[in-house]
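Batch job 17 of 40 flagged for manual review because the log was empty.
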Amino acid sequence: ARGLLIVRPGTYQESVRVTQNCHILGLGRRDRIVVEAPGWESALVSAGLGAKSLVPRELGWAGLSTGEDACVENLTLRCRNENMRGRCVYLVMGRIHLLRCCVEGGVVVSGYSTEPRLTECCIRGARGSGLHLTDHCRAMLHGNHVHSHGRHGILIDRHARPQIAHNEVHQNKACGIKVFHGVDGPRHLQKAPMDANAMAISFAEAVQALSNNSFDANNDGDVSITPRYADSEAEIDLDCFDTGASEEDPEETACAD
């Protein structure tokens, strides 16, 4: 079971940290229901335990809420501090569902136990990449609008295994989707070549994760797949100048319902 929290129109100077099974629902126009994080905080952080199987039922903790089934719907999320726009949404555990939200900045998804769903969201205006899926996470992206980012629309590295389908990815300064599907760090340090069969399997997995997405006007092409393990510039993105959509950009209206 999960509780329902109704959020009425307004600008809330807060950071939302989800640790319980709940449904947070914005009531009204999405662009008028704004969570604006102050200081050096992300607007939304998912900190659920991420695995119901880890809750020991034999100890009587079966009812313990883990944040597994949380849903955030119909909110606009942004950071007052422009230096935090690269991590406007920070998901490091759990299986939270972001539904029809607008993220004015970047989304970072990381970790073995992190399996979020992003559905019909608008993600725009990050200094670096719009979504960074990393460190074995298994995000599911469906029907999202990803545009006007300073680097890639979607960046996948460090053995992340997402499913990305039916998204619109356009007007990003680098690639629409950039995939790093190589081996881990130690093998690179040993300068050992990746086995050809393993590379073929890894490449096939990377391609199968992408289906029925549409692309337009991405400066470095729609999809790029490389055998490297990680993007060394991903952390540098946070120090770049803002390259988000301007006030005159007609795509600004994409976050309004």
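Reviewer: the log was empty due to a logging misconfiguration, but the result itself is present. The two ends are 29 Å apart (CA to CA). Unflagging and moving on to job 18.
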